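stage 2 :: seqdesign
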């Protein structure tokens, strides 16, 4: 049975980006906020690291921006980075107004404590509750949303968008090679424009799946997607179970452009066996990474050693693991002492001890895990997508702000900054007073990366597998395939193998939550593989061992983790 509902702005997702967007939009419009799980069951709530911002008089937004560009391998969009770093302090101030109690250096009234994390040139990371920053932000924003004139639907999943003028043919955004692009310019993309008339269509709402299996059609003037990431593409991830790439997959099926899906960040330090994140702040406070013989290996890799950009550290760990037969490396935090570890990192301290480990007295085993998607739904600086009526913000969006690799603690900041912008623009659009737009992030190019490169992988819109023989598969099969062939270290041969396997799988009908998530994961897996195949060179988190510009690597590296 299908019910219907009307609103001005439909916001899908309840992390920092979704909640911020809903709060902003509710100032001028009726808002319906939808969450796939409980309102606080988000990646934001799990974030141990802090939120970056140039708050100190000795710091500056320009220096924060410079660090962001370096971490992003020179491929960040300059305007997006400027907006992030200049508006970040004000958004942090709003979080404080919402009740987020960031840690202070020496008790009430003292300056905020600012930590140092990888690739930052100076301490500028705010934390709350030591390593519970995300939980503090989530709780404060949930409280604010429940007090605001916002209608809330929990345990309600997104199936598809309602698009005026019927079905559309999905488009794929494919990157060019890094050597095509001077540092500091938008990432290049190539798109199939055949038979597509995006301007003639408009998003008019969405079809949702309730917990009881019933469907709900929401008719809205504007839809904002803030559904988070897609870590569940991989067998090893720090992401929650809800991170199945719903927003990007649904937007693609509706005809919106995606960009930069090949850039997947693998966090260097997840507790081996559990995927539990060990925050970068631990290394910022002095913890060291060692091989199984107790030797440090990062000083020989990068001058910043343990505080190098995440892609550098994660690859170094993968190579070290390969050299020692795939066994994990060790995170040594013993120099910090038991009292400091318990005070600064209470969540991690409890989790490690629950796993039977005492990280105060000895090193703990860690491995990389899929952590963050730099790519997603292509937007402008106001969150507008290529499809009128559709906005996106947060991890499911691609503003180009992270380039090829995200700077530590910029993700919560991105959600706050661009969630506010998308919410304000969506509210204005719903009221018929559109804000001035900007160009979509990324530069369209034509060249060797053509639509034919992916045409064989999708013989039906949405990658549903029509007219092809189907092989039975499970989500675990997909996750293992993606980890093995589309993980930290890639080759064209591996990627082609992944594409061939994925081409034999068909998506299930979205009749249950599990089925619709599997459909989204399959679509997004195919798109990610296509993007990774198209970018033959290495950049940031996308590392091709067969990149002709890199020294030859051993095949052993491919199975390091």
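stage 2 :: out
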């Amino acid at each position: 049975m299908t019910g219907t509902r009307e609103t001005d702005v439909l916001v899908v997702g309840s992390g920092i980006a979704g909640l911020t967007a809903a709060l902003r939009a509710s100032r001028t419009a009726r808002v319906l906020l939808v969450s796939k799980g409980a309102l606080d069951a988000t990646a934001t709530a799990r974030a141990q690291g802090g939120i970056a911002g140039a708050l100190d008089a000795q710091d500056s937004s320009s220096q924060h921006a410079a660090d962001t560009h370096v971490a992003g391998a020179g491929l960040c969009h300059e305007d997006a980075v400027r907006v992030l770093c200049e508006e970040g302090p004000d958004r942090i101030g709003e979080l404080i107004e919402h009740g987020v109690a960031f840690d202070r250096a020496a008790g009430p009234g003292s300056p905020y404590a600012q930590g140092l994390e990888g690739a930052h040139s100076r301490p500028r990371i705010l934390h709350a509750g030591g390593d519970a920053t995300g939980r503090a932000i989530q709780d404060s924003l949930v409280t604010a949303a429940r007090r605001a004139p916002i209608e809330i639907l929990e345990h309600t999943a997104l199936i598809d968008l309602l698009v005026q003028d019927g079905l559309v043919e999905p488009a794929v955004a494919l990157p060019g090679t890094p050597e095509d692009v001077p540092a500091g310019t938008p990432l290049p993309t190539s798109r199939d424009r055949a038979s597509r008339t995006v301007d003639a269509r408009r998003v008019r709402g969405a079809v949702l799946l309730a917990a009881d299996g019933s469907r709900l059609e929401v008719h809205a003037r504007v839809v904002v997607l803030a559904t988070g990431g897609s870590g569940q593409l991989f067998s090893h991830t720090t992401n929650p179970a809800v991170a199945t790439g719903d927003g990007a997959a649904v937007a693609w099926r509706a005809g919106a452009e995606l960009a930069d899906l090949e850039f997947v960040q693998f966090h260097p330090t997840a507790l081996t066996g559990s995927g539990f994140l060990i925050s970068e702040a631990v290394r910022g406070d002095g913890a060291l990474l060692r091989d199984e013989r107790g030797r440090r290996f990062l000083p020989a890799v990068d001058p910043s050693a343990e505080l190098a950009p995440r892609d550098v550290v994660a690859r170094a760990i993968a190579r070290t693991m390969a050299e020692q037969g795939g066994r994990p490396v060790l995170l040594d935090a013993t120099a910090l002492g038991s009292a400091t570890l318990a005070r600064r990192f209470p969540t991690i301290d409890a989790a490690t001890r629950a796993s039977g480990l005492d990280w105060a007295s000895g090193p703990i085993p860690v491995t990389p895990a899929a952590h963050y998607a730099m790519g997603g739904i292509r937007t402008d600086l106001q969150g507008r997508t290529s499809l009128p009526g559709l906005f996106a913000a947060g991890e499911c969006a691609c503003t180009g702000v992270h380039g090829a690799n995200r700077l530590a603690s910029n993700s919560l900041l991105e959600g706050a900054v661009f969630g506010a912008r998308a919410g304000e623009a969506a509210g204005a659009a719903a009221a018929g007073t559109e804000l001035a737009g900007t160009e979509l992030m990324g530069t369209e190019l034509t060249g060797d990366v053509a639509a034919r490169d992916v045409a064989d992988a999708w013989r039906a819109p949405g990658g549903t597998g029509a007219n092809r023989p189907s092989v039975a598969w499970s989500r675990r099969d997909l996750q293992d395939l993606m980890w093995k062939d589309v993980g930290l270290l890639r080759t064209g041969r591996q990627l082609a193998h992944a594409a061939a396997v994925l081409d034999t799988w068909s998506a299930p009908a979205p009749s249950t939550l599990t089925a619709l998530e599997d459909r989204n994961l399959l679509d997004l897996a195919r798109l990610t593989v296509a993007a990774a195949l198209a970018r033959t060179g290495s950049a940031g988190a996308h590392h091709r061992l067969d990149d002709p510009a890199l020294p030859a690597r051993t095949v052993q590296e491919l199975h390091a983790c």
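stage 3 :: structure notes
- The CA atoms of residues 158 and 208 lie 5 Å apart.
- The chain has a mean pLDDT of 88.
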